[in-house]
């Protein structure tokens, strides 16, 4: 289940579902691990592709991937993704700045 999150598939699925062009710029993958959970995040910039800087950050999150109630290890259940959009912290679309700005929030949310 982790492997399927470490691709552009979740971004395409979410962007298509909400009617946006499937374009995610400067994206990266973040794995958040605690003693009780494992979450994969896809993070990237969205906005007008004709503009050099995108004003929004899209964060797509997996459910807890440590699922002890999985009915069959060979066929994991389908995942329900969550997502949010926020204004970019970086004015130049440097993903490192937005990751740093969100780290404490993610550590709190996914502990």
Output the keywords:
alpha+beta; 111 residues; four-stranded antiparallel β-sheet; 4 strands; globular
Give the averaged pLDDT, no decimals.
Answer: 88
Tell me the quaternary state.
single chain
Q: Estimate percent helicity.
A: 25-40%
Find the count of extended strands (DSSP E, 2+ residues).
4
Largest sheet: 4 strands, antiparallel
Strand content: 25-35%
Supply the number of helical segments. 3
Overall form: globular
Order of helices and strands: HHEEEEH
User: Span between N and C termini?
Assistant: 19 Å
**In order across it, which strands form the biggest sheet?**
1-2-3-4
Uncertain segments are: none
Broad structural category: alpha+beta
Q: Output the radius of gyration.
A: 15 Å
């Amino acid at each position: 289940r982790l492997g399927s999150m470490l691709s552009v598939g979740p971004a395409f699925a979410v962007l298509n579902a909400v009617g946006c062009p499937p374009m995610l710029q400067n994206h990266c993958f973040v794995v958040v691990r605690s003693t009780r959970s494992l979450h994969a995040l896809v993070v990237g910039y969205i906005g007008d592709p004709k503009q050099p800087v995108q004003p929004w950050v899209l964060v797509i999150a997996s459910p807890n991937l440590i699922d002890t109630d999985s009915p069959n290890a060979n066929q994991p259940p389908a995942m329900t993704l969550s997502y949010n959009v926020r204004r970019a912290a970086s004015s130049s679309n440097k993903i490192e700045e937005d990751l740093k700005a969100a780290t404490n929030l993610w550590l709190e949310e996914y502990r």
